[in-house]
Amino acid sequence: MIVMLHNSLLAIALIAILELVVMARILLRPHRDPASRIAWMVVVAVLPLLGMFAYLFLGEVNIGRRRVKRLHTVLGRMPPIPGLTGVASDPAAAIPERHRHLFQLGHSISGFLPIGGNTAHLLPNSNAVIDAMVADIDAARDHVHVLFYIWLPDRNGCKIVEALKRAAARGVTCRAMADDLGSRTMIRSRHWQAMRAAGVRVAADLPIGHLLLRPFVGRIDLRNHRKIVVIDGRITYCGSQNCADPEFLVKAKYAP
């Protein structure tokens, strides 16, 4: 009886110490909103074991130390970020007042200042965007860079696959990256291997690996949601356009 009581007290003390350690981490973690700190503190205090596990697996933005190290290495090799060109030297002078806060937000996130001399077009629908991408990839002369969160092996998805294969056959440098979770059906399909065989440099972004081990090296729910196409350093597609049919069969309720 005494041994059991001693063990129980030891377990309670151990949990309390772990709880204090996690709370200290919550308080000392940089770049966290105060409301978020308070919310996590309450969760850990009310549900000690469950709260600690929840915070350690979901409470911090963690994609893994090795990935962060690689990111800093790549950023260190990048050329200096360009400033505003073709307009006044002061970026703010060229931006209408009603839009200035948007550019300030973008600069605070990426470090990039606005660059003048660009034009933008809004295309009427999802199919039109894919067809325009295919036409521009078919006209590419130097390079095509493609990054999608969701890339499906459906009609529109395969249009981009075939366009990249044609470009690679012409000697155009083609690089294609897709999120390992959002594009898992494409990455595990024959089309992905066919692109690699055709000379397209393909890469799965944020690979999941073993489901049980993944949480210990980085959060599985942090994904690369970017949808970007860059052609010859001259044309870009950006925004919320995934590479899929408008019906969006993977999640039809989110179809346009």
Structural class: alpha/beta
| Spatial shape | globular
CATH architecture of the largest domain: 2-Layer Sandwich
Return the CATH topology of the largest domain.
Answer: Endonuclease, Chain A
User: Can you tell me the number of structural domains?
Assistant: 3
Largest sheet: 5 strands, mixed
Q: Specify Rg, calculated over alpha carbons.
A: 24 Å
CATH class type of the largest domain: Alpha Beta
Explain this structure to me?
The protein has 256 residues and is an alpha/beta fold. The protein has ten helices and five strands. It folds into three domains: 2-58; 67-118, no CATH class; 121-254, Endonuclease, Chain A. It has helices at 2-28, 34-46, 48-58, 65-77, 97-110, 126-138, 155-169, 184-187, 190-198, 214-217, and strands at residues 143-148, 173-179, 201-205, 228-231, 235-237. A hairpin with a 3-residue loop joins β4 and β5. α2 runs antiparallel to α3 (48-58) and α7 runs parallel beside α9 (190-198). It is globular.
